[in-house]
Amino acid sequence: MTENPQAPSPRPADAVPRSWVDRTPVGLQPWLRLMRLDRPIGVWLLFWPCVFGQALGAAAAGHGTPNLYYVALFVLGSIVMRGAGCTYNDIVDRDIDAKVERTRGRPIPSGAIGVHGAWIFAIAQSLAGLAILLQFNTFTIWLGASSLVLIAAYPFMKRITWWPQAWLGLTFNWGALMGFAAEAEYLAPSALLAYAGCFFWTLGYDTIYAHQDKEDDALTGVKSSARFLGAATRPWLILFYGMAVALFLAAGLAQGLGGVFAALMIVPAAHLFWQARTIDIDRPQLCLRLFRSNRDTGAAIAFALLVGTATVH
């Protein structure tokens, strides 16, 4: 498979219509699409757990608000490392992606970018991520480096287990631990509770996402929680999201956040329940819309945590 940087860059089926990426030079578009910059929801879902951890870490350290410099670093890190992870994932999954309607337009299976170029790009992004990571304290640096094992294994999970979404939950939410460590330079039970809450949140929203591909996945032999749960998805979503809300509440209360925080958590709890009640697993576009709405869920959880932290100091 060879690179053809002057060829039109196809828009993957799940890309945001009329993205700013479409207005960039043709030769640049495949690289931006490989980073998924035409689908920013992944950046949000990687970033919000960092904020959750920062809010709890700031409370533990006696700060009224998280360090804004660290917030900026987590923004940049979320963009770069999400791009590196997607590039690596697409290299590993290129043969599967070529057989799936939603993903065959991605830069590698479509031929817009070759595998060799993709590896170089993945390494370059990873080095940029390392430069960002080195701005934190030593404990946070080692904690961030330890996530590489989870990242490296993730693309293979769909070939091994019916629950690759669970592995994504472990991998994608490492920022909750790092955010806490960046503020407090250690980990407390509240950080672990928030990480567990993020795990169940991801288990829910990525199951919704996986329902878009279940027919193609069945043909290619790819496993997912969507295929495993099938028609029973709704009650399981209620369980996953219920666990997430309970664990987020436990994290905040364990860190001393009070009634204001608990009251504000009603908003994300209601939003998650709405997702579970609204889902129709046979409507891919609805599944995609519900999945993307988790940007707002994360914002609501972050707001509850940040206000809760501010009101106790």
Topology of this structure?
Elements: H1 29-34, H2 41-61, H3 68-92, H4 94-97, H5 107-110, H6 115-133, H7 138-146, H8 148-160, H9 164-172, H10 174-184, H11 189-210, H12 214-220, H13 225-229, H14 233-254, H15 259-264, H16 266-278, H17 284-292, H18 294-311
Helix pairs in contact: 2-3, 2-10, 2-11, 2-18, 3-6, 3-8, 7-10, 8-9, 9-11, 10-11, 11-14, 11-17, 14-16, 16-18
Keywords:
Tetracycline Repressor, domain 2; mainly alpha; 313 residues; disordered N terminus
Task: Give a quick summary of the entry.
With 313 residues, the protein is mainly α. Helices cover 71% and strands 0% of the residues.
3D architecture notes:
This protein has helices at residues 29-34, 41-61, 68-92, 94-97, 107-110, 115-133, 138-146, 148-160, 164-172, 174-184, 189-210, 214-220, 225-229, 233-254, 259-264, 266-278, 284-292, 294-311. It has a single domain (26-311), classed as UbiA prenyltransferase (Tetracycline Repressor, domain 2), CATH 1.10.357. With 313 residues, it is an all-alpha fold. The chain is built from 18 helices and no strands. The protein is globular and about 55 Å long. The chain starts with 28 loop residues before the first helix and ends with a helix. Helix 2 (41-61) runs antiparallel to helix 11, helix 8 (148-160) runs antiparallel to helix 9 (164-172) and helix 10 packs antiparallel against helix 11. Residues 1-8 have low confidence and may be disordered.
